[in-house]
Design goal:
Elements: H1 3-13, H2 18-25, H3 35-46, H4 67-76, H5 82-88, H6 100-111, H7 125-129, E1 132-133, E2 139-141, H8 152-164, E3 169-172, E4 178-183, H9 188-197, E5 210-215, H10 218-221, H11 229-240, E6 249-254, E7 268-273, E8 276-281, E9 284-285, E10 289-290, E11 293-298, H12 301-318, H13 325-332, H14 334-343, H15 345-362, H16 366-371
Parallel strand pairs: 5-6, 6-7
Antiparallel strand pairs: 1-2, 2-4, 3-4, 7-8, 8-11, 9-10
Helix pairs in contact: 1-3, 4-6, 8-9, 11-12, 12-15, 14-15
Length: 387
C-alpha cells in the first residue's frame, strides 16, 4: 500500500485511527512494522484532530483489553496462568487465539520468572521446535558464536554435521554466524547432539530473544581500535543470552567510532571511544531504518554490562509483545530511559538485578534438552501412509 492511497483513504473515508486505516487499507495489518509511518500519515493528514494512542487497541478480538492493561492486571491480581487471565478478564473465546496466547505466555513468563511454566502450545512453531522453518518445510539451524568468534574445532564439528546429515546449504549470516539450511525436522535432535559435543549451543535465531552480538576485532588486532570490542561483545552475549523479550533483540560492539560492527543501527549498540564506551539504543536496519539514540557514555566494561541489562529489563517489563525496541523507545521517549537507567542509579541496579534473576532460569540450552529426549513428540514423523 503506497503513501498516496493511504492519504486518499484517510481524507475520503474520514478515517480517524490506525484501526480505521487497517480496516480499510490493510496498511499496518500484517507484521505491524509500518505502524509508526501510518500514525505519521494520520497526523499529517488530520493535523491537531488526530490524537495518537488516544484509544486503547485491544490485543486481539478475544478481549477489549490492551497490552499495557493486561500486564498491569496480571501483576495487581496476581494471575499466574493463561486460563486464569482469560477467565478473570472475560475473554470472549474459550482458548484464545494465535495473537493473544503468545502475548499472555510472554507476559506471565516475564512477571513470574522461575515460577511460571512456559506454555509451548502458546508459542509459534519456530520457538516450539527451536529452529527456523523454511518454505519447503525443512528447518535452519544456527549455532551461537559468542561475539562472532569461533574456532577450528567448532568449524570442523559444523562441517562434519553438514556431511553426516547431507545438509544442502551452509550460509554465513549477517550476525557473524553460520546457518545450516535444509535440516529435516526429525534430524534436528541428532544435529543438535553432535553440535553440543563441540560445545555449540542454540543461537536462538528463531526466538523473541537475544539473537546476536556483532563485533569488530577492536584494539586486540586493529590499529584504530580504542577498546577490546570483541571481549566486550562476548561478555555482553554471555550475560544476556536466553532472555525472552517482547521481540528479537540484536546488539553490536564497535572498537572505535569508525563503527565497523554497525552498532548505531542495533537495538543496543556500544561504540568504543578513547575515554570508554558510548551506549546507543533503538536502532533498526530492516524494513524500517533508524539510527540509534545516544543513551549515555560510560567508562568501564562493568558499567556497559550493568546499563545493558537494565535497558533490556526495562524493555522486557514495558515493551508490548511483538514491539521491537525502537517503536517502544519512540513511544516512551529516550528521556524516559535516561531517567530510569542513567540518572537513577537505584532504579538501574534494581532493573539489572531483576534481569539477572530472570535469566538465571532461562540460560539453559534448549538444543541439549531436546537432544536428550525432551518433547520428543515434536520431532517424531507421522507414520507414512501408502496406497
Amino acid at each position: 500500500m503506497c503513501k498516496g492511497k493511504i492519504v486518499d483513504a484517510i481524507a475520503a473515508k474520514g478515517l480517524q485511527s490506525i484501526e480505521d486505516v487497517r480496516a480499510h487499507t490493510k496498511a499496518s495489518a500484517s507484521c505491524g512494522s509500518c505502524t509508526g509511518l501510518v500514525e505519521k500519515l494520520l497526523k499529517c493528514t488530520l493535523g491537531d484532530t488526530f490524537q495518537a494512542g488516544s484509544s486503547v487497541k485491544p490485543v486481539c478480538g478475544c478481549t477489549s483489553y490492551g497490552h499495557d492493561e493486561i500486564r498491569k492486571l496480571i501483576r495487581v491480581k496476581e494471575m499466574r496462568t493463561i486460563p486464569e487471565v482469560m477467565q478473570e478478564l472475560g475473554w470472549t473465546s474459550a482458548n484464545g487465539c494465535s495473537k493473544c496466547r503468545p502475548a499472555l505466555n510472554y507476559y506471565l513468563l516475564c512477571e513470574y520468572p522461575g515460577e511460571y511454566r512456559d506454555d509451548a502450545q502458546s508459542r509459534f512453531v519456530n520457538e516450539r521446535v527451536h529452529a527456523n522453518i523454511q518454505k519447503d518445510g525443512t528447518f535452519s539451524v544456527v549455532p551461537r558464536m559468542w561475539g562472532g568468534m569461533t574456532s577450528a574445532a567448532e568449524l570442523r564439528a559444523i562441517a562434519d554435521v553438514v556431511d553426516r546429515y547431507q545438509i544442502p546449504s551452509v550460509k554465513v549470516t549477517g550476525g557473524q554466524r553460520i546457518d545450516l539450511l535444509g535440516v529435516k525436522k526429525d534430524q534436528l535432535p541428532a544435529v543438535w547432539a553432535d553440535l553440543n559435543k563441540a560445545g555449540l549451543v542454540s543461537g536462538h535465531a528463531y526466538g523473541k530473544a537475544l539473537r546476536t552480538v556483532k563485533t569488530c576485532v577492536g584494539s586486540e588486532w586493529c590499529r584504530f581500535g580504542t577498546q577490546d570490542s570483541t571481549a566486550m561483545g562476548i561478555a555482553l552475549e554471555r550475560a544476556t543470552w536466553g532472555a525472552w523479550t517482547p521481540h528479537k533483540v540484536k546488539m553490536a560492539v564497535s572498537g572505535c567510532p569508525r563503527n565497523c560492527a554497525e552498532a548505531t543501527v542495533k537495538d543496543f549498540g556500544v561504540v568504543a571511544v578513547e575515554s570508554g564506551w558510548e551506549l546507543h539504543v533503538g536502532g533498526a536496519a530492516g524494513m524500517h531504518v533508524r539510527a540509534t539514540d545516544l543513551l549515555c557514555k560510560v567508562v568501564t566494561a562493568e558499567e556497559v554490562l550493568e546499563y545493558c541489562c537494565a535497558f533490556l529489563q526495562l524493555y522486557r517489563e514495558e515493551g508490548r509483545y511483538l514491539e521491537r525496541p525502537w517503536p517502544w523507545i519512540e513511544r516512551v521517549g529516550v528521556a524516559y530511559l535516561q531517567r530510569k537507567i542513567v540518572e537513577d542509579a537505584q532504579s538501574r541496579r534494581a532493573l539489572q538485578a531483576r534481569f539477572r534473576h530472570a535469566v538465571s532460569f532461562t540460560q539453559k540450552d534448549p538444543w541439549a534438552e531436546r537432544a536428550a529426549g525432551a518433547e520428543a513428540h515434536e520431532f517424531t514423523p507421522l507414520a507414512e501412509v501408502t496406497a
